[in-house]
Amino acid sequence: MSASTLTEPLPYRDPSVGDLIIRTSDNVDFHIHHRRIADVCPIFADMATLSDTPSNPISNSGEMEKAVVHVSETSRVWEKLLPICYLAEEPSLALEDIQNILEAGRKYAMAGVASRMRMALLLSDFLEQKPFSVYALACAAGFDDVARLAARRTLRFPIYPQDTPEFATVTARALYRLFDYRQRCGIAASAVVTWRVGSTIRIPAWMSLDYGMLQTCRSDWTGCAAPSFTAALPTGEYEHGFSSSWVTYMDRLSEQLKAHPDSDLVESPALLQAVSNSMDKCSTCQKSFYRNAMAFTKIIKDKVNDAIGQVQLVLEK
């Protein structure tokens, strides 16, 4: 028996199966059962208005001739769409596939397609790798929860992404809402680390139990070569010996967070290296720097995330 004899037809391509042909725009035929597709897509129930139904359903050879439905989508769309309609194994999907399937699902009123695509956006790597694209698709499909998650993920990326074809699916207002959200997140994140009020450094109340890690080894300024300053405590009192390099770190971090509200910036090696270099002036401070930096940046990162989490994305209704 030859290899060609053993080759099985591709899914939905077997002419011996079904009683209906879906013919795509690129002239590919999918052979399916009319009743089965009609169960998930009521539009297909009325075949008289959709198909080229043969006047004589029995061919000269005695076989049943199939009705043909011409569709405007390509074969790639339907080879992904049919398994979803039939609740078969989830096909591998690119973002373009999800967009096209969502459009086809709306067009043909296919039950369950939107919810399957919502889960595809949530569970795939697209949310982490291409959040701008996911945001656009989610807005167009009305997936508010996905849009909010994607908007939060965009904060890790530059404000102006590379060309995003999916932006064509949403309104200018939806894009404005995204960039407005980013700006408000930047303001909120920056405020967490803005401790300088005029010429005074004020330690926030939430730092009252932990500010010791910002001080040099001698809070009275004696015996320590690392530059230090006086700061206002939450109690209203002033205390000496706060490391000047941490103030510089906070000032720089505040500016960066305003434009790029990503809590990972808190652990930026470039920002922390400047603090470490300053601590080199005192061997005692240098020994405790790593431990203090790890503890301090964790506190700040959590606070930045909390502040960003309070910012609400306003979606179109």
Automatic annotation (TrEMBL):
Protein name as annotated: BTB domain-containing protein
InterPro entries in UniProt: SKP1/BTB/POZ_sf
Database matches in Gene3D superfamilies: Potassium Channel Kv1.1, Chain A (3.30.710.10)
